[in-house]
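Incident log, support desk, overnight shift.

02:14 A customer reports that sequence design results differ from what the structure should imply. Their input is reproduced verbatim below. On-call engineer (initials T.W.) acknowledged and began investigating.
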């Protein structure tokens, strides 16, 4: 049974996929109301109101996925979620149209003083000349951040006869051409635009992106809009420029602190505002709720999510192809970790053969998580694998090769410690399964599942017999046994599997046998 906490107002109709699923309990409560039971939840669904801090994440040790029913994830401590192995997903396009339309409504309201005129009439006045506006037609609209919402605004602005200038360092010339917009640097755009609207995420780079220094280069009388995130236009600087009438007016859907109690921008007639309503339409709320409900369901069923912030995107079809290798490399990582009884400095992997015509980074993350899972408490998975390796100073190497050592595909992993190194090769054959085919250069073949003993010894008569006798005397049943050697009389290996893990006592007894170089135990 999975327990899901819905901490913000998410449209119930959109959550239908989760409500219909068996083995899922959905609980709608604010974080403060769920304080006592936070440790029980497997998934957390939020909008922008709940702040998902590291402190909250630490109170939720069972948490596996955080889903944002919307776009901006600036209310979620994504690095902390990643550190704790928690997947973060959002609903990137469910509210695009609604937010673009809202921005456009705000732009028209700003240019034509609609909110001010409305209040005036409601107060019994009829001051027509006080609210003379400006046309949008023929004006230059500066869009900062040309993603999904910026793109939809550009299309609408064109229909209104506006000239669209955009600044987005990640905008390709192809997309600029397609949208028929002029791509400029921010320095070029600011002095030219009559109206400027921001549509970037809030990041350390975009915080204060528009400030009094660069806004002073704008035309006097410029209009500004922020329907993205509070703080992209510096609020104190905006207040100063509005007082000076350098900025003629601003339309704000978002604020640094929400609700913006005591915010001095609210005192100005030239500021029009809405309470973070960009995504608040029936359609957008249904879309984002459905998107995240489906993502959470897919994730809890063990399938890949499409819109993760901290995992590479992978389709279901691709994941199905990748999955056998995904398990195999995890087991290879686990073998490496359990055999190396010392600190690990380096993990390298080569994907050989035809099978690896896809982004193998998810496999490498699975390998690293296999290495660390047996060594660390707490969640270790492909979300935090690279971070864990980095924090421990472990070097990761990944190569793709056409050489598969005679197999259709072959994954070669080397785990290096201070004194030792372990080389493991594995392959996957469709309808047959995965096999480890070489350990430390010894050819061998075994299914990497169960409890194993790896013995490296001198190749001479009696060694295998001695091992069998000691195990038999203690009634330990050998499930499978594989042997391998490089040359007669040299070093050889045995890999034995058991129904139960081998006891410490038995391990010690076997270790005392002559001609045994070293032994490793592992459970996969
Ligand atoms: N008011 C509301 O209710 C809503 C607000 N939003 C906000 O709008 C933002 C944008 O949403 P989408 O267009 O869907 O996201 P998006 O990811 O499609 O677009 C963001 C664009 O910003 C650009 N960008 C990033 N850093 C930049 C920088 N330093 N300078 C200039 N451009 C930069 C990116 O290249 C990208 O093209 C969201 O991050 C969210 O914070 C989104 C939905 C509703
Ligand atoms: O999707 C976004 O980024 C939004 O800002 C919408 O926020 P909300 O879900 O309405 O609190």
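02:41 Re-run completed on a clean worker. Output:
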């Amino acid at each position: 049974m999975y327990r899901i906490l819905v901490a913000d107002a998410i449209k119930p109709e959109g959550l239908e996929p989760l409500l219909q699923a068996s083995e899922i309990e959905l609980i709608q409560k604010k974080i403060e109301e769920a304080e006592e039971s936070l440790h029980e939840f497997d998934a957390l669904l939020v909008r922008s109101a709940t702040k998902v801090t590291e402190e909250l994440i630490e109170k939720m040790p069972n948490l596996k996925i955080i889903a944002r029913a919307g776009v901006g994830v600036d209310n979620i401590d994504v690095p902390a979620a990643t550190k704790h192995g928690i997947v973060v997903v959002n609903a990137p396009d469910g509210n695009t149209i609604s937010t673009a339309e809202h921005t456009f409504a705000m732009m028209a309201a700003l240019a034509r003083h609609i909110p001010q005129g409305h209040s005036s009439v409601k107060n019994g006045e009829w001051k027509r000349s006080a609210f003379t506006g400006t046309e949008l037609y023929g004006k230059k609209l500066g869009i900062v951040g040309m993603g999904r919402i910026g793109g939809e605004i550009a299309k609408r602005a064109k229909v209104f006869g506006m000239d669209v200038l955009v600044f987005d360092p990640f905008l390709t010339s192809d997309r600029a051409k397609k949208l028929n917009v002029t791509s400029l640097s921010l320095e070029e755009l600011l002095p030219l635009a009559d109206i400027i609207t921001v549509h970037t995420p809030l990041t350390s780079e975009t915080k204060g992106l528009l400030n009094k220094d660069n806004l002073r280069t704008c035309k006097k009388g410029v209009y500004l809009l922020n329907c993205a995130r509070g703080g992209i236009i510096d609020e104190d600087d905006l207040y100063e420029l509005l007082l000076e009438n350098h900025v003629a007016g601003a339309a704000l859907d978002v604020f640094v602190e929400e609700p913006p109690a005591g915010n001095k921008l609210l005192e100005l007639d030239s500021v029009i505002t809405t309470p973070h309503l960009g995504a608040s339409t029936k359609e957008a709320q249904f879309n984002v709720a459905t998107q995240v409900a489906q993502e959470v369901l897919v994730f809890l069923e063990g399938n890949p999510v499409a819109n993760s912030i901290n995992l590479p995107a992978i389709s279901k079809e691709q994941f199905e192809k990748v999955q056998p290798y995904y398990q195999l490399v995890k087991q290879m990582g686990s073998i490496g970790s359990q055999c190396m009884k010392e600190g690990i400095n380096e993990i390298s992997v080569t994907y050989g053969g035809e099978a690896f015509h896809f982004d193998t980074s998810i496999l490498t993350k699975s390998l690293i998580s296999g290495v660390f899972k047996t060594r660390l408490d707490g969640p270790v998975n492909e979300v935090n694998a690279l971070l864990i390796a980095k924090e421990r100073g472990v070097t990761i190497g990944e190569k793709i090769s056409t050489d598969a050592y005679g197999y259709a595909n072959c994954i070669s992993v080397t785990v290096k410690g201070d004194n030792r190194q372990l080389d493991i090769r594995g392959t996957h054959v469709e309808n047959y399964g995965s096999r480890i085919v070489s350990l430390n250069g010894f050819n061998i073949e075994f299914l990497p599942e169960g409890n194993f003993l790896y013995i490296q010894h001198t190749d001479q008569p009696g060694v295998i017999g001695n091992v069998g006798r000691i195990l038999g005397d203690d009634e330990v049943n050998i499930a499978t046994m594989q042997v391998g050697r490089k040359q007669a009389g040299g070093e050889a290996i045995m890999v034995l599997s058991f129904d139960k893990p081998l006891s410490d006592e038995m391990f010690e007894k076997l270790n005392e046998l002559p001609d045994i170089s070293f032994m490793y135990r592992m459970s996969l």
